[in-house]
Structures are given as C-alpha cells and as structure tokens.
Amino acid sequence: MTLLETLVIAFWAMLPAYVPNNAAVLAGGGRPIDGGRTWGDKRVLGDGKTWRGTAAGIVAGLALAGILSLFAGDVESAIGVDVPEFTPLAALGLAAGAMLGDILASFLKRRTGRQRGAMFPGLDQLDFVVVSLPLAAVLDFAWFTDVFTWEVILVVVILTPILHVSTNMIAYKLGLKNEPW
Ligand code: CTP
Ligand code: K
Ligand code: MG
Predict the structure, then answer these.
(1) Residue of the CA atom closest to atom 15 of ligand 1
(2) Considering only CA atoms, which residue is closest to atom 28 of ligand 1?
(3) Atom of ligand 1 at shortest range from CA of 114
(4) Beta carbons within 8 Å of 92's beta carbon, 6+ residues apart
(5) ipTM computed for the complex
(6) Residue 112 and residue 116: Cα distance in Å, rounded?
(7) Residue nearest to atom 17 of ligand 1 (CA)
(8) DSSP state of 32
(9) Mean pLDDT of the chain
(10) How far is CA 82 from the centre of its chain?
(11) Per residue in 15-42, pLDDT tens?
(12) Residue to mutate, 25, 51, 111, 178, ligand 1, most ligand atoms under 8 Å from C-beta
C-alpha cells in the first residue's frame, strides 16, 4: 500500500470517530451527565459533557458510518483505494468510543484540577482514539484487524492531532467553540 492509500484509509476509517466530537459541540447543552455532582470539591465531569451532546455525537457517527458504507464501492471505483465499509458493531465502537474517550478525558481533567475548557495537551487530541480503537476491536475484532493494520494505526496517531487542532481552530473562529482546542 502506498502512503497516500494508507492516509485515505486511515481518514475514512476514523471519520465515524472524528465526527461525534464536532456533532457534540453543535448539539451540546442541557443536562450534564454528572447531574452537577462533585467528587471532593470538584465536578465529576463538568457542564461540558451533556446527555444531548453525547447522544447526538453517537448518532452522527453511526449515521456517517452508514453513509460512508453506501459510497465505499463508488469511492473505490473513482480513486482506486479499497476504502472499508463499516459493520454496525464497528461503527458503534468508533462512535461511542470517541464519546467515551472524551468523557474519560474530562474526568481526568477534573481530577487534576483543570476547569471546564482548560486544555490538556496530548489528551485533548488523542482521547477519542485511545478508546474508540479498542472498543471497535472488542465489538468487531475481524473488521478491526482487517482495516486497522499497524501502518493505518500509525497514520491515525499522527494525523488525528493535526486534524483535531485544525478543526477546533476553525470551530473557534466560527464562534462554535469557546476555546481553540
Ligand atoms: N459537548 C457535550 N457533550 C459531550 C461533549 C461535548 O455537550 N459529550 C459540548 C459541550 O457544550 C462542550 C462543547 O461540546 O462545552 C465542547 O466540547 P469539549 O471541548 O469536549 O468540552 P469542554 O467544554 O472543553 O469541557 P472539558 O473541559 O470537560 O473538556
Ligand atoms: K475534549
Ligand atoms: Mg474543550
């Protein structure tokens, strides 16, 4: 596989894990998941993790996986790269794993005394990869090993922070996000 093919497959395969965060930003609000509860003198998760945002993120990731699967054949004929279709379980692992990773990151941020919106370099950019890939592997191991070769995983680990920083910068400039990270 050429580097370009690996890049295309990595981006394609990760889209159902990338889009939930952005959908959550657009749809967020309402009741926080932690219900306002604190642990010690700090919130468990904080007001930035809501039921609505989380549900919207998972639904958006699943919907995108469905749409991509419909077009995988067309994309292959058009550009000659064998982009994968998503099984329902793989899609669920990627989308729900992305949201879960983001929630666990907020839990860690609160425990380390960071207020809502504070940055945590490294964690902010890779939290969703760290949970979405293992969860997809647990839910559909055959699909996962077929798509996520070591080359693809390496590209994901390098590409994701770059995409994360740039999309959040755009969302911030557009006034959709309070901070550029
Ligand atoms: N959001 C949400 N539910 C989620 C994730 C995000 O409602 N599960 C929405 C919230 O409105 C949140 C915004 O998306 O403020 C930006 O997400 P993020 O940067 O992850 O949250 P922060 O507000 O920065 O909070 P934290 O410090 O906990 O990451
Ligand atoms: K985050
Ligand atoms: Mg944030």
Answers:
(1) 48
(2) 106
(3) 27
(4) 58, 62, 139
(5) 0.98
(6) 12
(7) 25
(8) B
(9) 97
(10) 22
(11) 999 999 999 999 989 999 999 999 999 9
(12) 25
